[in-house]
Every structure is written in structure tokens, then in C-alpha cells.
Design brief:
Layout lengths: L15 E4 L6 E6 L2 E6 L18 E3 L9 E8 L2 E6 L6 E6 L7 E7 L7 E2 L3 E4 L5 E8 L3 E7 L5 E6 L14 E5 L2 E5 L5 E5 L4 E5 L21 E3 L2 E5 L5 E6 L5 E6 L5 E5 L3 E6 L2 E6 L5 E6 L10 E3 L2 E5 L4 E5 L2
Antiparallel strand pairs: 1-2, 2-3, 3-4, 5-6, 6-7, 7-8, 9-11, 10-11, 11-12, 12-13, 14-15, 15-16, 16-17, 18-19, 19-20, 20-21, 22-23, 23-24, 24-25, 26-27, 27-28
Amino acid sequence: QTANRDATAFAVRPRLTSTADGTNPLVCWHAQGGVHARRLADAAVPWSSSATGPVSDRLFPPVGDKTITPAWAPCVQAGRLLSLAGMPAAQRLVCLDISDAAEGRLLWTARLSKEDGGEVGEPVCSLNGRGEALAFVCVRGAETELMAIRLADGQLLWRLPLDGLWPQASSTRAPAVAVAEDLVIVLADDGSVWAVDQAGSLVWARGPAASAPAPAAAAGRPALQAPAVACGTLVFCSPDGRQLTALGLRSGRVLWQFFAPARLSLVGLTRSELVAFEDGRILSLSLTDGSILASRPTPDLPLVGDPLLADGLLFWPVASQATTTDSP
């Protein structure tokens, strides 16, 4: 458990992400005012023994600097932490070096949207075949594009327009992105799915979900959930959150579907199961056929962010404290 926090610190819903980079794996998240991190092993403030290290778990921006409000989830690859920050009309990517030696040093920032008011989706990170750390992010303005950026220096490697890849696709916000093996998976809010290789070429496409409701205005809607992948299986939630669909990663073929009476939230995948929660219960589903393996009540604590499945533990962010529970 971490120290108690004022509930107002979570006015921006935090996201959690874990990393095994370096000798001190971290749990990183966004809360109002900055990017935060704690050591995964003991929830201690990272680099707290160093004279130059942070005096709190806030990595960026410096305490007292209110010019940037983080958005979405930080992602981590090869000792780099990538954050989407700024107000909606002027969002930019921020890259920090979170290796033990650098202790969260700012490396670069980049603005991606071509015009004011363009929406930048949540970035994801991965290594390519040459061992380079890359970030992939969707930007929606006059057109919707998928971009690849090199983490070492922030250089834009390529951009792929998405609007013409499936004629019936109709997205009203920046699509969600996930990386699986050598593919980049893009999910639009009408249920369209694209698989793109890391050179920017389309591998396969799946049109809008037949049962998907028409995309609504962005205000007040739950965040679009990114797909999850394990063992060659791609799983994603329908736009209304009431259906899980599993596809073959290489083929895009439907493997199974799971329907729920209430809105589902996909937490993560292991090698054999899927963890989700809906309407006061945590579900464990078979990754093979979508059957229910286990069901248990959610912790009796107010959820203020997105749970994280890591190292066999389910992290459940709450307003008063952070707790963990065994995975179902």
C-alpha cells in the first residue's frame, strides 16, 4: 500500500503501467498535475536514496509546475517513459529517461497534431526488429493517421492515413492502439480493426462491428479501451462495452465472442486467461474459448482509475490508498 492521498489528486483518472526495465521495476501512472512512479517491489519512491532524486513519486513536470496536465496512460520501453500531456487543443508527447542513472530526465517533447483541437490517442511502445524503441500513436484531426516515432530522439518515421483503409469505417475520436509481436493493432470506436506492420503497411482489416451503435459525441463517454494480445489471440471490447471479441492475431478471424449484461472493462491477458470486470465482479475467462473460469466480487473500495494486471497481481487504484489482490 502507498501513503494515503487526497482524493482531489485523482481528478484525472489515473492509468497504471508496469515495466521490467532496469534493476528497479516501476509502477507508473497519471494523476492530476503529473506523471508518478513507485517501485513495483515495495511501493517506495524511486531513486529516493539519491541526492538528486525526486522528493516525491512525481516524475514530471517538476513540483509546482502547472503548465502541463498529463492525459491517458504513460507507456514504457527500453528505459524510456512516454506520456501524452497538455490541454486538449495543444497535446504533445513527453519522453523521460527512467533508467537508474538518469532518474527521470526529460529527453524530448513533440507536438503531433497538425492543427489546434486535433485529438491525440494514447501512445504505445515496442521494439522493432533492429532493437529500436518505437512509439505508435493515432492522431485525429481533419484526417485520422497512425504515426511511428523513434523514442531515442522523437523523430517521426512514418505516418499512415487510416480513413481510406476501410470504406465503411467511421470514427469520431482517435482510435486505440496496441502492439503485438511485429504488428500494430488499431481499434476505432465503431468496432473497425486494422493490423499494420511496423513499417507502416496494412496486413489485414476488419470492418465495423455489425451490432455496434453509431459513434456518439466524445464528451462524457468512457475512454476507448485498447485491444490486448497474448499467445496469438487479440481481444477487444465492443464500442458499447458489452461484448468481448477474440480474433486470430495473424488472420483477423473471429475465434469467440463473450456477451455481458453490463459494461465490461478489459484488464489484461495472461498466457491462458483473460481478466475483466463488470457490474461489481471480476471475471476470469478462458483465452481459448471465452468460457468463464472464475468470478469474484470486486474489492469494496471506490475505483478511480483502470486496474492493472501485472506479476500475478491485480492492482486496484482507489482514492484513499492503492491496494493489490490476487488475480482470479
